Every structure is written in structure tokens, then in C-alpha cells.
């Protein structure tokens, strides 16, 4: 590794945990820890932010100005996704079942009940360009109904504990893409998140 000075604190995405003092990892999966970031925050950063980054940008293709719906915003990956989507310049709609997200978490915070109608109302009946589904279960059908023509649904987990049943007819009729994301150290370096200094 030649881009990071010896002795600099670093983080990496590794397989099967890293509970050790020293560890050898592929240099493409190592990022310097920003000076203002404490070790506790740095320890959780690779999984939550890498997963959100790869899901939204690499797999989901999120662009500035697009509308994105994000579920699971009170969890680590969901919170990271909300921050990344805002930094990209997307219009962010968070789905909050618990009622604990603050209005600052997204441009709009909605309950899961009646979600598709609410998203369509906010988008002039167009629907969302992208959905990041971290929850799965029955909510996924509502998320598909909230998508615009040629919308993209990225699935990254099943926090509800239920793997959704999806109607391929709905996918076909809406020309929708369903995309899976599995973030792991095996992913090519080109998809790894670059440090953004935030």
C-alpha cells in the first residue's frame, strides 16, 4: 500500500469480523480514518456506509434530483443511506414505522400505511425513481407500487424477518428493475466507496 502513510489509522471491510490487533487485508478495501472520527464510529463505518453506498450508487444508480424511498432509516445502514442520498442531492423519502425519525432525516418522512399513494402524491403521480428496501416482508409490494415507470428497487436485507413474495406481473407492467445487493470484501475495488471526508 503506497497511498496511506504508515501509522495512519485505517478501516477496512473484511470477512468474518476483525476482532484482533492486526489483520492483513486487500489494500483496495482499506480507507484512512478521518482525523475527526473516533474509533467507535470508525468500527461501524465499513459495513453500514459501504452497504448503503454500494446499494444506492453502484447498484441503484442514484443521481442528483432523483426521488428515492428508503426503508429502515432508524438502523445503521438506513441512517447511512439517508445521509448518502441527501449528499448526492436526491429527493429523499424515508419510511418510518416507529415514528422516531426526525423531519431532518429526509425531505419527507412517511408511515408505511398508504405509502404508495403518499409517494405518488408527493411526485405528481410519477412515483419514485429508486427504492432502497432494507425491510422486506409485506412492505415490498407497497414499495413496488410506489415506483415510477422504469423505477429501480434495490433489496439489501429483510429486517422484518420475512422474505417478500413479489408479483412478476407488477414488475413487468411497470418495467421495473429489482436489484440485489450483497456487500462483501469480495466485491471489486471499483465498487468500494471512496472517502468523502464526512
Automatic annotation (TrEMBL):
Positions of the Enoyl reductase (ER) domain: 1-194
UniProt cross-references to Pfam families, sorted A to Z: ADH_zinc_N
GO molecular function, a single term: oxidoreductase activity
Matches recorded under InterPro entries: ADH-like_C (IPR013149), ER (IPR020843), GroES-like_sf (IPR011032), NAD(P)-bd_dom_sf (IPR036291), Zn-ADH-like_protein (IPR051397)
Top-level taxonomic group: Bacteria
PANTHER family with a match to the protein in the record: QUINONE OXIDOREDUCTASE-LIKE PROTEIN 2, SHORT-CHAIN DEHYDROGENASE/REDUCTASE
Protein name: NADPH:quinone reductase-like Zn-dependent oxidoreductase
Organism classification: Bacteria, Bacillati, Actinomycetota, Actinomycetes, Streptosporangiales
